[in-house]
Specification:
Its main location: cytoplasm. This protein has about 350 residues and is of the alpha/beta class. Helices cover about 25% and strands about 20% of the residues. The two termini are about 35 Å apart. The structure holds NADPH dihydro-nicotinamide-adenine-dinucleotide phosphate and N-acetyl-L-glutamyl 5-phosphate.
Length: about 350
């Protein structure tokens, strides 16, 4: 059995990792570490985790995380690097924070207020590049940076078009709506029930959201040239889910059939990323609780733009599902082991 620990297990991302691990046939759940909730019963924070009713959160130290094959880090940004440095090299460390996602130190410094910590292999197995999906970088890896939730949705939506050379690199617009769990569970006055119920609002507007450089990094890798994007996130009155609507200027002569061929080639063999049949459009409800990504494409010939919509559950494929998928790849297990490919509906 693989012994796995989770730091930040009392948070939304950590709780979702634990939920998935309870259904993983080859994982034994070890330390569940927390901050302020250390010492409390696991089910006092995550009442859905019934099989762990006799477990308590422990403190987060290198000692409590010792003795595991895998350690998941689901801590606030900037807190993973210090802890990671104190854990052994041979442990598989999977970081759900942003600390090790970016390759460009200048981009990090522009968008984050902590010191640049370095770059780990990026945990998006299906991400298209000119040489095919990048999952081979994760096979046998001992350090993996799990993508942000918006970058998961937007990058999987657009990367096949860039890898196939169907769109221009300098005219990409992404507007994405996220459920409130994307913001974590610490108290934020603008996220009280009264503020978000029955209301939608953009935030991080004007190219300042920290996921902008992460999306650009992913799409530039697919395109083989620098890609710039205009990204606007929106808060939606729902607990989970992201719907990203992405558009890009399409190259002359590219039609819908060529677009669908490119997306089919990228995702036909993928278990979790699905190009929907023509006429169906992604919805957050259809991917809820699953590791799936739904994608649909259209060509708006009137303005010469490719339109791609994608839906993910921000806590599953957007974080914890990707983390477990990466663990499977790192350890040589079948990639989908323990991961739900069927959502809950309605
Ligand atoms: N929510 C999402 O959809 C996504 C989240 N992520 C990333 O995952 C990480 C966790 O996010 P999320 O779960 O949403 O955040 P939460 O605020 O819900 O959880 C944060 C976790 O970190 C713990 N923690 C905070 N400070 C400390 C500390 N000093 N020492 C030990 N533990 C500490 C908290 O413990 P306690 O509550 O006990 O104090 C809690 O378990 C972040 O880096 C986030 O960016 C990535 C993609 C999507
Ligand atoms: C709704 C909401 O607030 N979402 C978060 C993104 C969550 C995410 O993907 O996480 P990382 O912080 O790990 O990059 C935000 O916009 O900051």
């Amino acid at each position: 059995m693989i012994r796995a620990a989770v730091a930040g297990a009392s948070g939304y991302a950590g709780g979702e990792i634990v939920r998935l691990l309870t259904n993983h046939p080859q994982v034994e759940i070890g330390t569940l570490a927390a901050g302020s909730q250390a010492g409390k019963p696991v089910t006092s924070v995550h009442p859905n985790l019934t099989p762990l009713a006799d477990r308590q959160f422990t403190e987060t130290t290198p000692e409590t995380l010792d003795g595991h094959h895998v350690v998941f880090l689901a801590l606030p940004h900037g807190q993973s690097a210090a802890l990671a440095r104190q854990l052994p090299d041979d442990v598989v460390l999977i970081d759900c924070g942003a600390d090790f996602r970016l390759g460009d130190e200048a981009a990090w410094t522009t968008f984050y207020d902590t010191e640049f910590a370095g770059t780990w292999p990026y945990g998006m197995p299906e991400l298209a590049t000119a040489d095919g999906p990048q999952r081979h970088q994760l096979e046998g890896a001992r350090r993996i940076a799990v993508p942000g939730c918006y970058p998961t949705s937007a990058s999987l939506a657009l990367a096949p078009a860039f890898a196939a050379g169907l769109v221009d690199a300098d005219d990409v617009v992404i507007v994405a709506a996220s459920g409130t769990s994307g913001a974590g569970k610490s108290l934020k006055p603008h996220l009280l029930g009264a503020e978000v119920m029955g209301s939608m609002s953009p935030y991080g507007v004007g190219g300042v959201h920290r996921h902008t450089p992460e999306i650009e990094q992913n799409l530039s890798g697919a395109a083989g040239e620098p890609v710039t994007v205009s990204f606007t996130p929106t808060l939606a009155p729902m607990p989970r889910g992201i719907l990203a609507t992405c558009t890009a200027r399409i190259k002359p002569g590219v039609d819908l059939a060529a677009v669908r061929r490119a997306y089919d080639a990228a995702y036909a063999e993928e278990k979790f990323v699905h190009l929907l049949p023509e006429g169906m459009w992604p919805s957050t409800g259809a991917v809820l609780g699953s590791n799936n990504v739904q994608i649909q494409v259209a060509v708006d010939a009137h303005v010469g733009r490719l339109v791609v919509a994608s839906a993910v559950d921000n806590l599953t494929k957007g974080t914890a599902g990707a983390a477990v998928q990466c663990m499977n790849l790192a350890l040589g297990l079948p990639e989908s082991t323990g991961l739900p490919s069927v959502g809950v509906a309605p």
